[in-house]
């Protein structure tokens, strides 16, 4: 079960990256959030079924960190209040 959910999470990350390259930031973020939720569900599933191992923990932490880093790096730049007032 954990292998399949990790693959699903990885596919969601790839889909989010493809959406980001296509300049669809909202879709990319939605896919990345789903990926993080998939990784968290994998962790919870592994803990409850006692399949927890060091390689799995390292993989899950790396997957969640990479997904969060992608979200942070590709975030749309925010405009300051002065810039918003000048644009109106």
Written account of the structure:
With 88 residues, the protein is mostly helical. The protein is built from four helices and no strands. α1 packs antiparallel against α2 (25-48). It starts with a helix and ends with a helix.
Task: Name some characteristics of this structure.
88 residues; mainly alpha; 4 helices; 0% strand; elongated
Q: Mean pLDDT, rounded to whole units?
A: 78
User: Portion of residues in helices?
Assistant: over 70%
Assembly type of the chains comes to single chain
Radius of gyration: 17 Å
Topology:
Blueprint: H1 2-21, H2 25-48, H3 54-73, H4 81-87
Helix pairs in contact: 1-2, 1-3, 2-3
Concise structural overview:
The protein is mainly α and 88 residues long.
């Amino acid at each position: 079960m954990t292998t399949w959910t990790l693959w699903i999470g990885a596919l969601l990350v790839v889909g989010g990256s493809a959406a980001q390259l296509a300049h669809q930031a909202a879709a990319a973020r939605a896919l990345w959030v789903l990926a993080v939720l998939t990784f968290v569900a994998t962790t919870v599933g592994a803990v409850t079924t006692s399949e927890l191992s060091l390689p799995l923990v390292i993989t899950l932490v790396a997957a969640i960190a990479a997904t969060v880093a992608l979200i942070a790096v590709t975030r749309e730049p925010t405009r300051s209040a002065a810039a918003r007032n000048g644009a109106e």
